[in-house]
């Protein structure tokens, strides 16, 4: 198995929930997969909440996620 991802971007983990959720995987199984890859970055209740939100039609095209992505990109620019 590959090494865990050490520092995921805040919007990365919720985004990874969409695919297994769309396939009909149970939130508890999705949580196990997230912990295996990212460590304990999100508890099972939060995964269940995100699964419910995505099932209602929520996408990552919202202000919060866009703001986090822009902050991350600006941080990259500072490194150059």
Chain-wise SSE layout:
Blueprint: H1 12-22, H2 27-38, H3 44-55, H4 63-79
Radius of gyration (CA) equals: 14 Å
Our count of domains comes out at: 1
* Percent helix: 55-70%
Largest sheet: none
What is the ordering of alpha helices and beta strands?
HHHH
Report the uncertain regions. Answer: none
**Tally of individual helices:** 4
Number of strands: 0
Proportion of residues in β-strands:
under 5%
Shape estimate:
globular
Query: What is the average of the pLDDT values?
Result: 79
Secondary structure class reads mainly alpha
Termini, distance in Å? 33 Å
Protein traits:
80 residues; mainly alpha
Describe the structure.
This protein has helices at 12-22, 27-38, 44-55, 63-79. It has 80 residues and is an all-alpha fold. The chain has one domain (12-79). Helix 1 packs across helix 3 and helix 2 (27-38) crosses helix 3. The longest helix has 17 residues, at 63-79. The radius of gyration is 14 Å and the shape is globular. The mean pLDDT is 79.
């Amino acid at each position: 198995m590959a090494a865990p991802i050490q520092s995921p971007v805040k919007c990365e983990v919720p985004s990874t929930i969409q695919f297994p959720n769309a396939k009909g995987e149970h939130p508890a199984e999705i949580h196990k997969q997230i912990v295996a890859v990212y460590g304990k970055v999100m508890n099972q209740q939060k995964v269940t909440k995100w699964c419910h939100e995505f099932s209602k039609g929520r996408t990552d095209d919202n202000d919060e996620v866009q703001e986090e992505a822009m902050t991350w990109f600006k941080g990259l620019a500072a490194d150059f």
